[in-house]
Amino acid sequence: MNIPEMRKQNLLVKDMDEIKHFLDGATTMRLAFNGEDDYPIILPLSYGYSVDGDKLTFYFHGGFNGVRYESLLKDNHVCIETDSFERYRQAPPSATADYISLVGFGDAVELKDDEKTDGMRKILEHCGYGYIDIDPDLFKITSVFKVELEEYTCKKKE
C-alpha cells in the first residue's frame, strides 16, 4: 500500500509525542471499510491505541453480528481517521480551518483470549476510565479488533 505523498509537506506531523498528545485528546475514530454491494461504510467509534516506536495500533469493539462485523470478516482492509477541529479563521482573501488529523490504513484483526482483555483495557483507558475489572462474560457478546497501521499520515494546520 502506498499513500500518495501529501501535497503540503509543511503540514505533516512526524513527532510521535505530538501525535500521541493529539490522540489522547481526540474522542472518536472513524472506521471505513468495504460494505455490501461494494459501497463503502464509515462508522464513528470509541477507540484505544498503542505505540511501539513509530508504529500505531488502534483498538475498537462491537457486537458479533451486524454489517461491521460481517463485512470485516469478508474483507478486513480498513482506513481509520481521527481529527480535532480548533477553529475557523479569516485567511484573506478567504477563510480556513485550524485542525489536526490522522489517516491510516491497515487490516482489522479480531482479537482472541487475553488479547481481547488487553485491547478492551486500551479502549477503556482512552475513554477516561482507570483500571477496572473486566467481566470475562463481556466477551460472549463483544468482539475486539485491532488495526496495526501499515501507513499513516498526521496533518496539522494552524
Automatic annotation (TrEMBL):
PANTHER family: 5-NITROIMIDAZOLE ANTIBIOTICS RESISTANCE PROTEIN, NIMA-FAMILY-RELATED PROTEIN-RELATED, FLAVIN-NUCLEOTIDE-BINDING PROTEIN. This is Pyridoxamine 5'-phosphate oxidase. It comes from the Archaea. Coiled coil: none annotated. It comes from Methanosphaera cuniculi. Pfam families: Pyridox_ox_2.
